[in-house]
Amino acid sequence: MYVGIDVGTSMVKAAAFDDTGRELAVQARPVDLTIRGGFVEQDMEEVYAAVVAVLSELSAAVPGPVELAGLTGQGDGVWLVDDEGRPVRAAASWMDGRAHELVDQWLADGTFETVFRRTGSAMFPGCPGPLLAWLDRYEPASLDSATAALYCKDMVFQRLTGERATTDVSDASMPFLDPRTRTYDNRVVELLGLTHRRRLLAPVSDPVATARTRDAGLPPGTPIANGPYDLPACALGAGVTAPGDGLLIVGTCLASLVGTTDLDLTGEPAGLYISTDRAGYWLRAMPAMVGTAALDWVLSTTGVRHDEVDALLAATPPGANGVRVLPYFAPSGERAPFVEPRLRAELTGVCLESTRGDLIRATCEGIGFAARHCLEAAGLTGSLAVCGGGTRSPAWMRLLADVLGRPLRVVEGEVGARGAVLAAAARYGVALDTAAWTEPTAVVEPDAARAAYYAKAYQDHLSRLTEARSRSHP
């Protein structure tokens, strides 16, 4: 048995697999986000307790020896810990927007672009650079008392194993890692005014760190590997390992990833290059801030249940009877395929005749247009896999195939946990049939007529986005 642990933003999951990649059982537990005035934080003790709980429940549901475990989780944010890996303060989430003024300043004075040209990372308010700089300015006591500024999975790994905190090249990619040398770029640290906080950056373990678990949910002594974080872990779990092939993760975050061996730091500063366990191979990532979170907000606001979405999409025509949604709902604005910290969502074309179905379809279409924008910017030329919570809606998958104008290799189940196991197996030298582990569950083909309609609607989306971006500047 192999166990994958995925510490997500709103849900912590643990999945058990047999050696053919068949999913044996999954345990999940929600975790809270505290959102107030642009601050988005998480209780680290709650997150860790959820990890231990799902592992304990999984062990009870599928008793037996565990060959090895792999760990992944949400990226970015700042998780300040002491020597024991215990929290110094609440974790600042990747969704946090408090540092938008610093990003605005760095956009204006050229620091933002300089950092991108050196690391391939386009900073946004919720990534560690701006958050650490904000904490250094407004909450220095927290940094003074911390031993390390970790990423989510690194905190969990330290608590599960007792090993000193490290991170991996994927998490370290934003924003301090030089993707060519796979080490921290101290000039970037200096540009962000953080040289005196350099000690907080966890050592980069390349390849990923391994250890054995203590008595915390898994059998003591279970071999476990730390990383990569959830985006590249999903790419592994979906079989996206060749240049040109892509992955769309329709989750809380709408993430677009395309494999590449070309490190081009000359284009528009947006997204990031994620370093992988293969030197010379990166994932060109365009992780838009909001995916299913946008739909969840609209569902909550309109009183529509998740199990009603498919029927409403089927009953509403393409174009949603004139209703349009620009799906930029995050309090920190947008980070891909452009950076606009002040950009906000827009809902237009609504009248007294508009229905709940119109609002739902317009939101799903808007998310699809955002995904197309990101995938084009990331350089998609090959096949496209899709995973995440959004794949549970067949109607949304058909809509996405039409909006994107290409077939979708739908990979269901716990794809991040699956990728974490594959990464752990590679690290420990355990031979697994990766083709069998990453087999798609379905292929959704686009409808030619609807795809042609959406190709024109996408151009309208880009025009409206340009106008919205111009209005977002003070």
TrEMBL record:
It holds the Pfam family FGGY_C. Residues 1-237 form the Carbohydrate kinase FGGY N-terminal domain. It comes from the Bacteria. Gene3D superfamilies: 3.30.420.40. One of its GO terms (molecular function) is kinase activity. Keywords: Kinase, Transferase. Residues 272-426 form the Carbohydrate kinase FGGY C-terminal domain. The keyword Kinase applies. Belongs to the FGGY kinase family. This is Carbohydrate kinase.
